[in-house]
Protein: Glyoxalase
Organism: Trebonia kvetii
Amino acid sequence: MRTTSDVFHLAIPTHDLDAAQEFYVTKLGCKLARRYDDRITLDFFGDQLVCHLTPGEPAAPESLYPRHFGVTFREAADFEALHACAVTRKIPFYYEVSLRFEGLVEEHRTFVLTDPTGNLLEFKHYNDPRMMY
């Protein structure tokens, strides 16, 4: 079973390591752990994200579903701080903040960012923390 000392690992494609590093480190505030000729490894909000260099040109995302990733924040202030950071640093939004499942127990706010390769990152905050899973 995973403990709080374990780290989730996700590998995604990138078409430009410099652009990926600029997006994830400089704009989003992630920590660069390692950089090689073919990948960068990041501390993505406490988990490990690896951006692997992939040949070809970035494709515009067609839909949020089924492929996206991100963070569900326990604290509303963390959600709001990241949103403010994205606005200030002019990070491209795929979807601006919206309210989903309004009036239901699973009500939450969400926004979606687009990285330079077209990977979609969704960030959420549920009013009821029991709905995080």
In short: The chain has two helices and eight strands. The first strand starts at residue 9 and ends at 14. Residues 27 and 89 are 6 Å apart (CA to CA). The helical segments are 17-27, 76-88.
